[in-house]
Amino acid sequence: MSLVIVDTGVANLASVLFAFERLGVSATVTDNAEVISKAERVLIPGVGAAPFAMRKIHEKGLISVLQGLTQPVMGICLGMQLIFETLEEGGEKIDGLGLVPGIVNALDTKGQPAPHMGWNTLKQLSNDPLLNGIKNHDYAYFVHSYAAKVSEVTLASSEYGTEFSAIVRYKNIYGCQFHPERSSLVGAKILENFLRVPA
Prior knowledge:
The protein is α/β, with parallel strands linked by helices and 199 residues long. It contains six helices and 14 strands.
């Protein structure tokens, strides 16, 4: 299994790399378009601000290769937000990678502190190979202020003030709004499942 973790220039790559090492899987961290395109699985991580992240991806010349991937792809945390069509953040409205239909905007916390930070439950909405072994109301670790609304691409939701998409899938593209690499056994199982989803 060849697994590539995309060096977006805006991610804590070490923690994601170590999470796969704990599963006995070696991953390649790279921003080389040819290596990314030939991988059997591609992971897009990210932390921070979406507009800055998209500028970094543009600068690295990775837009077209990421948009052309046909193998299983997963975005995590900010990486999940980047896979959507439109990103609204900090007064900016910009194009995301456009791999998943929908808009990411500020999470309506209903007066609760932002960002949404800490452990929260996953509400399973759909059967999918990515969720094998994951139970309704299992916990995952979140750190985010922006999110996508629940829609037809939502596999599982969570709630912080309002309900939002915690896990999504559209064709070969998956996304986790939480940090699976920090989500103990639940996160490890999801990463393991990602390596096994049908290509």
